[in-house]
Amino acid sequence: MSGYRNVITLIFAICLMQAAASFLGVITPVGLTELEAGEALTGLIGAIYSAGFMAGAWAGPALLGRYGTIRLYAAAAAITAVCALAMGMVPGIAAWGAARVMQGIGFGLLFASAESWLGHAAPNDRRGDIMGFYYFLSRIAGMLAPFLAFGLSALDPRGLSWVSILLCLSLVTLCLTRQEEPAPPAREVMNPVDLFRLAPSAVTGCFLAGLLNTGTLALLPTWTSTFAIAGGGTAAAAWAAAAAAGGALLVQWPAGRISDRVERRIVVAVLSLFSGAAALALAAGGTRFSEPAVLALLCLWGAGAFAFYGVCAAHAIDRGGPGRIPQVMSGILFIWAAGSVIGPVLSGIAMSLGGPQALFGVAAFGLFLLAGIMLVRSRVRPAPVPMASEGFMPAEATSSTLANPDARQAGQT
User: Fold this and answer.
1) Distances 392 to 18, 119, 290, 316, 321 between C-alpha atoms, Å
2) Burial of 142 (0-12, 13-18, 19+ CB in 10 A)
3) Where are the alpha helices (DSSP H) in 187-232?
4) Do residues 106 and 57 touch, judged by C-beta distance below 8 A?
5) How many Å apart are CA 45 and CA 98, to the nearest integer?
6) CA dihedral 199, 205, 208, 214 (to 10 degrees)
7) Alpha helices in 122-191 (DSSP H)
8) pLDDT in tens, 258-307
9) Which of 330, 155, 306 lies closest to 243 in space, CA to CA?
10) S-S: 81 plus which of 136, 167, 349, 405, CB 3.0-4.6 Å?
11) Is the dihedral of CA 83, 84, 85, 90 positive or negative?
């Protein structure tokens, strides 16, 4: 348990930040619906948020090298909180679109800062375990946060004020950590082509995580509008998001621990297969299922769909070399964000052309494709051989991205 104690403050800070992001992810599409934005426009605003996130992730290593982790985190948290308050003050489609771009940049920098710090603390032989524990707690935060909007209109400034509160609490927690701030990393970002050569399986998985999961979540509140769960509106969106996050909550940590002992790509393939089966059932059954059945299937879908990103990230770090944590993880965030730019637009177009069932039809196809890719790649290129673990530095573990790459020998997957 000492390993968890060394990183728990950082994890708690990131979870508060994740709660703010999850809250915005649910309330924004509901608010856009109240503003009479169509499905395609809602998807487009989701895409430009992801474009901002991609820019923030890309700029992360350079800005970390220039300003340091805590100062960059503080600046990004402030920008993101101000934009949330502005959304409550100016309820309009154009204003919300502009705010979401800035929030995307802010969250990209926040994740690049905090996850890089956390990542350096993870010992080589427990990477999947620590990352699984982190994602486990972040799923709890993401599952509970949307319920802060209960009883409020999505356009109510009181609801959006919660984003600022959560970000401020996250910043206070991060500043009070007893861990020493990591040294500024090298400023260059790993080229996506080089990252793909290093770890093609991880890059493919993270790209599809962004494309499929972000696209589905961006339109999920619109999809749930066909149901009367908890009276509809923000309540229905919150219950749907909670069901999906609850599934990931059950699977994320065990999946991470298992991936320390079993080939990570096989773990990703299994997660993708049962998540794809649930998505296919949702696409085929649609509104014919009862509401409890829909929530159960959403739970199964989220269990696999939200769990494989962390395993893919650990696999990418396994393939990296010493001192490349910020570059590898910023590159992975960039790849995920690139998929997130495309996902909401693709899902919005699919729903416009094929109806509500098309949302999970796209998800099912992508998940089955990912499972096939992982199974093939696991046979083409063997897993990296573990190197000796460095272990935790007592009360001073720090650095720059989601986990330590000097864990394993470099190679391709």
Assistant:
1) 25, 11, 49, 20, 18
2) buried
3) 192-198, 200-208, 215-224
4) no
5) 9
6) -110
7) 127-144, 157-175
8) 888 888 899 999 999 999 999 999 988 766 777 788 889 999 999 999 88
9) 306
10) 167
11) positive
- Compute how many other C-beta atoms are within 10 angstroms of the C-beta atom of residue 191: 11
**Amino acid letter, residue 387:** M
C-alpha to C-alpha distance for 238 and 248, rounded to whole angstroms:
15
SS3 percent helix, strand, coil of the chain, rounded to 5, is 80, 0, 20
Of 226, 249, 326, 243, residue with least CA distance to 278: 243
Q: CA separation (Å) from 14 to 136, 168, 389?
A: 12, 12, 25
CA quadruple 366, 368, 372, 377: dihedral sign: positive
The pTM of the full predicted model, rounded to 2 decimals, is 0.70
Whether the CB-CB separation of 318 and 385 falls below 8 Å is answered with no
Largest CA distance in the chain: 57
Domains of the chain: 2-387+394-407 (1.20.1250.20)
* Alpha-carbon gap, residue 108 to 75, rounded angstroms: 12
* 27, 160 contact by CB (below 8 A): yes
Report whether 79 contacts 20 (CB < 8 A): no
Shortest CA distance to 196 belongs to which of 205, 187, 209? 205
Q: How many CB atoms lie within 10 A of CB 94?
A: 9
Q: CA torsion angle for 55, 59, 64, 66 (degrees, to 10)? A: -130
